[in-house]
Amino acid sequence: MLKIVTAPNPVLATVCDPCTPGDESLKGLAHQMADAMYANNGCGIAAPQVGVLKRLVVVDVDWDDDHRDPIYMVNPEIVELKGEPESAGEGCLSCPGVTVSISRKPWAHVRYYDLDGKLWEIQGDGLLGRCMQHEIDHLNGKTLFESCDPITRISALRAYDEAKKSGARPGDTDFEVR
Ligand SMILES: [Zn+2]
Fold first, then answer.
1. Separation of alpha carbons 95 and 52, rounded Å
2. Does the annotation mark 162 as catalytic?
3. Which of 21, 80, 140, 142 is least buried, going by the fewest C-beta atoms within 10 A?
4. 10-177 architecture in CATH?
5. pLDDT grade, residue 86 (50/70/90)?
6. Is the dihedral of CA 25, 31, 32, 34 positive or negative?
7. Is the pLDDT of residue 175 over 80?
8. pTM for this one?
């Protein structure tokens, strides 16, 4: 099982390199990322979260033990964001123990390649729209702490320190920061 990189770590603050669409070696990595995501109760994961600086993410916002339908996104790119920004709590496998309120436009239109190198477009709001934006933030070196507003950031980092001291593991989201 791939180990999740947790903040702070320079890997999480680095802009990732584009992949070559259709590169066969991405398949194994993508499937291992999905395994790590499910094992840690996540709904999305980006390659830097397993220490790989490539533009590859996996998203599955609606899964349970009987139903898994991961979307593998190679070089995902935001085409357009729409709607009045909404705040909602987000967790992150790389920031175990905290939920941080982040304001985002609710509707996202994203273009990406699948693992076979075919180009797709997807549009989503709700959890899907939010999750895609969160994962693409990772590819640009941003975690929850860079995506929230500066005031929230102070309390979020404080809560994260507490969470780490109390032994929070990836997948824990107990310390909510508003
Ligand atoms: Zn994350």
1. 17
2. no
3. 80
4. Alpha-Beta Complex (3.90)
5. very high
6. positive
7. no
8. 0.95
